[in-house]
Design brief:
- With 251 residues, the chain is an alpha+beta fold.
- The chain folds into two domains: 107 residues, Beta-grasp domain (Ubiquitin-like (UB roll), Roll); 130 residues, Fumarate Reductase Iron-sulfur Protein, Chain B, domain 2 (Orthogonal Bundle).
- The protein is 34% helix and 11% strand.
- The chain has eight helices and seven strands; from the N terminus they run ββαβββββααααααα.
- The chain has a five-stranded mixed sheet with strand order 2-1-5-3-4. It has a two-stranded antiparallel ribbon with strand order 6-7.
- α3 packs antiparallel against α5 and α5 crosses α8.
- The protein is elongated.
- It starts with a strand and ends in a 7-residue tail after the last helix.
- The structure holds iron/sulfur cluster and FE2/S2 (inorganic) cluster.
- The site of FE2/S2 (inorganic) cluster (FES) has 13 residues, from loops.
- One of its GO terms (molecular function) is metal ion binding.
Length: 251
């Protein structure tokens, strides 16, 4: 396959960026999208050009490092992390626009790589439980209803990629925050700090440069882990409950 790629190039967050057109040939349908970018980068390096910066790590859909907009869709045409997207999803002769995540909360570091430390700060605010770990507890020492454990597991599959933010017209981080609040709030171990956790995490989300959620649903539509809009309902339920209970976050 031969493709024309219009790729966002930006030297750093202070410089203006622009789309630059590249042509790639001999692309195998079995290559991943990132491998296709690797091939382009090898050519750029051999011709003493600056390679295109993009984030990646596991390349197995589990770390959440990767992510670009392809023709305006976060992670591209399949509902998967872009490292799991293969070139067989495209046709010979396609022209693709490749851009970084679009959000004020994710400033561009370089080219297609963005700074997602805002997510780390939301987790640091309260996305954990405070408990002495001790030795490993006996299996089934803390019974958990099957429905709760399944829902908690589903929420915990969020890989923190940021596609939800990039897809949202408001640039909202609500689906990510909701997934992190839900996976702890559904488990018995998460109950003691349930109210203060949701208040602190939502406050940190609001302090970052993200927009508000207006239930559009683009986030869930592109989420590679299929985190549902119901997770946001659960967050709102917990948030209202904490506010009604008059919970006060402690540092
Ligand atoms: S909710 Fe989905 S799209 Fe958003 S960060 Fe988690 S895995 Fe990525
Ligand atoms: S590189 Fe780890 S999820 Fe894509």
């Amino acid at each position: 396959m031969s493709l024309t790629l219009n790729i966002w190039r930006q030297r750093d967050r202070t410089k203006k960026g622009k789309m630059v057109t590249y042509h790639v040939t001999d692309v195998s349908p079995d290559m991943s999208f990132l491998e296709m970018l690797d091939v382009l980068n090898e050519k750029l390096i051999l011709s003493d050009d600056d390679p295109i910066a993009f984030d990646h790590d596991c390349r197995e859909g589990i770390c959440g490092s990767c992510g670009v907009m392809i023709d305006g869709i976060a992670h591209g045409p399949e509902q998967t992390a872009v490292c799991q997207l293969h070139m067989r999803s495209f046709k010979d002769g396609d022209v693709l626009d490749i851009e970084p995540w679009r959000s004020g909360g994710f400033p561009v570091v370089k080219d297609l790589a963005v700074d997602r430390s805002a997510f780390d700060r939301i987790i640091s605010a309260a996305g954990f439980i405070s408990a002495p770990t001790g030795t490993a507890p006996d299996a089934h020492a803390t019974p958990v209803p099957k429905g709760d454990s399944d829902a908690a597991f589903d929420a915990a599959t969020c890989i923190g990629c940021g596609a939800c933010v990039a897809a949202c017209p408001n640039g909202s981080a609500m689906l990510f925050t909701a997934a992190k609040v839900a996976h702890l709030g559904l488990m018995p171990q998460g109950q003691p700090e349930r109210d203060t956790r949701v208040l602190k995490m939502v406050a940190q989300q609001d302090a970052e440069d993200f927009g508000g959620c207006s239930n559009i649903g683009e986030c869930s539509a592109v989420c590679p882990k299929g985190i549902s809009m119901e997770t946001i309902s659960r967050l709102n339920h917990d948030l209202l409950g904490a506010l009604r209970a008059g919970a006060v976050p402690t540092s």
